[in-house]
Write a structure and sequence with these properties.
The chain is 73% helix and 0% strand. The protein is mostly helical.
Length: 255
Amino acid sequence: MKKMLLSAFVIAMCGASGQCLSQEEHTKADKYKETSDFIQRQVNQNMSIGRAIKSIVSHYPQDVEIVVSTALDLYPDQYKEVIHAAISAQPALTEDVVRIALDKGVSTCSSVVETAIQAEPSYVDFVVNVAAHSTPEELDDIVRVAVLTEPNSADSIVRSVAKVHPNKLIQIITTAMEAVPFVGEYIVEALLAAYPNDAENVVSTAVRESSHQEGQLEKIIETARSAGLSEEEITQYAIQGGASEEEVAALMHGQ
């Protein structure tokens, strides 16, 4: 009798393919099915995936992982609404939402980053951090989209990404300033404070990338001077970036 009951239990726990599922796998499958049904009911009631996710995540922030993951499975074409709604409901969970979306591969990394920043601009550092960790091969796109979406935070964005990839400092500065050239002085200020030992790379790269922006060289020189760099260092680094010695001297001495 015991053998018959055991056999029945094994059969019940096995799929049609003959492969047995563990109790943990069954629990996960049940949870996924419950969540899927719940989300679809909420969508039907709210007439919008965005409103449904915002409501669910607001009330059940501890379940953001399975809620967002399931919603992206059910409505992959509406990933922007799902991401935006989840972050708007619980900004503190921004990193989790971005990571889940990137893991799901519902769209390009740059699109996920842009959507997340638009949902909660004040959490831009968290967005670029998790994106830079998750998809380092798309570093240029992450920086470019982030500074274009939130240019007022360009200095913070560059500093955050540089923490993740310090060996790519020049690439990060170049990408950011190609996208938004007028933020050069703020980027220089932020990076000289965070990476004083990389002053040469920071200043020379910023000068090179701002060469077509009127007035930027003067601002970068003043920023470097305020950061404590000597006239000799500033002159050397600016010349390395493409400025002429005469031009730098004139700006340094107010001529």
